Amino acid sequence: MYPRNSILIIFYFSVLLLSACSERIHDYYAGIIIDEFGKPIENVSVKEDLVDKYAGKTTTDKNGFFKLKAWTLQGLILKKDGYITDTVAMVWHQAGETTKYSPLITQDSSKHELKKIKGKELKFLHQEFKNKPEFFQISNPKFNPDSLFGIWQTDENNGFKIAKDSFYSLGFDGNRNMRYTLNFDTLNIFKDDYYFYRKGIIKKLESDNLQILWNDNELLQYKKIK
Q: Per-residue pLDDT for 182 more than 80?
């Protein structure tokens, strides 16, 4: 195909063409790859979106950090087993006029998230409520809500993160940002709208251990991730 010096010429010519934009770009890519809970991911493959013969390659360190010489503005391919492979564009145009660059080529420590692959299928109930639920409402809790807040997983691909005003379902095949209500020991999780929900009865909440009986009669044991 093209020799590397030709690729260099293409890169610097691209920079000249885009130099009218006030945003400064580097001649290298750099960033921190994190998971959906904000933790760094080690050993992520980072490769330029070129044929292997000409593509620059590296991997992230234990802090999720990488730095790689930029030969083009083609983009980066981020890949690791257990995660959804992501191709990150380095430059794009808004409304056909404004040129935008990825922080991975304009900053040294921007964070980019990789999502886990699809986990176990979750079964949701369907019901048309007469009154819309008051999302994130906690009523007469059987357990201390502060002990419930945090990241809980059954395995590396399944679990959730719950906070006072948010619920994130790890591995769900769809919008993973959901909503919830907690009434005594009953945790209702709502996806997209309030017609589809997943009902769980909290059976045990002790330190780093959580046990929930879900509406499909599945009793799951969760471990708190710190």
A: yes
- The neighbour count for residue 224, using CB atoms within 10 Å, is 17
pTM of the model: 0.79
Residue 19 lies in a domain: yes
Q: Answer yes or no: do 18 and 91 share one domain.
A: yes
Average confidence (pLDDT) over 4-14: 49
Write out pLDDT tens, residues 208-219: 999 999 999 999
The residue whose two tokens read 């589809």 is 196
The Cβ of residue 74 has, within 10 Å, a number of other Cβ atoms equal to 19
Domain count, the chain: 2
Instruction: Please check whether residue 29 is in contact with residue 76, taking contact to mean a CB–CB distance below 8 angstroms.
Output: yes
Strands lying side by side in the sheet with 86-88: 57-59, 45-48, 76-79, 86-88
Contact call for residues 64 and 42 (beta carbons, < 8 A): yes
Instruction: Indicate if the pLDDT at residue 101 is higher than 80.
Output: yes
Domain membership of residue 119 (yes or no) is: no
Q: What is the DSSP string of 139-181?
A: ES-SS-HHHH-EEEEEETTEEEEEETTEEEEET-SS--EEEEE
